[in-house]
């Protein structure tokens, strides 16, 4: 059983140590405390046995980007009491499934999705924390969702209001993926400004979900509170 494969455990343990030391070094460089930065292990394409290994090593937060894969994996590891983060683009017709296991949805990018999630979470008797996904492409325009998902920065507050209208949802902050080929540091600096404006209106909305395996240092430097790390922990997909 891969679940108890000692070599896999050692590999993931070493990767986790490496990732944690990268995060610590980035925090030191930025004058931040590592306690301000949470690690979300993105387990997409990797088996539920890897989720068990991560949990045995102290990881409490896991992320997935496709409901078809996430729903069975969350069910197979329900005994572990993990916090599940849905981080991928989400169709409204999948909201009902996601609302059953996710604790956080990072990728809310339109009012229709907020309504669908709100309705489904209420029906399931659950509460979801939602992040507004912001498109950091410099060309992003109000009212248009970019290729990597997300609203234009200027649409963020409006969508946060739509999320807060739903009794079963609360606005938790913002999320972004650095644009392909751009400077992640400049992009994450734009995200930080959006996050500050949002927090002025909703003081509880403190999450800044930014940074992946390749750009976590830039994200920490620019104030990220949650890093979504896949490859650096579990290897290539
Ligand atoms: C896959 C994924 C990640 C993790 O990316 P890595 O480069 O493997 O660390 C982070 N965020 C989102 C939205 C993803 O889809």
TrEMBL record:
<dbReference type="InterPro" id="IPR029066">
    <property type="entry name" value="PLP-binding_barrel"/>
</dbReference>
<comment type="function">
    <text>Pyridoxal 5'-phosphate (PLP)-binding protein, which is involved in PLP homeostasis.</text>
</comment>
<feature type="modified residue" description="N6-(pyridoxal phosphate)lysine">
    <location>
        <position position="44"/>
    </location>
</feature>
<keyword id="KW-0663">Pyridoxal phosphate</keyword>
<feature type="domain" description="Alanine racemase N-terminal">
    <location>
        <begin position="33"/>
        <end position="236"/>
    </location>
</feature>
<dbReference type="Pfam" id="PF01168">
    <property type="entry name" value="Ala_racemase_N"/>
</dbReference>
<protein>
    <recommendedName>
        <fullName>Pyridoxal phosphate homeostasis protein</fullName>
    </recommendedName>
</protein>
<comment type="similarity">
    <text>Belongs to the pyridoxal phosphate-binding protein YggS/PROSC family.</text>
</comment>
<dbReference type="InterPro" id="IPR001608">
    <property type="entry name" value="Ala_racemase_N"/>
</dbReference>
<dbReference type="InterPro" id="IPR011078">
    <property type="entry name" value="PyrdxlP_homeostasis"/>
</dbReference>
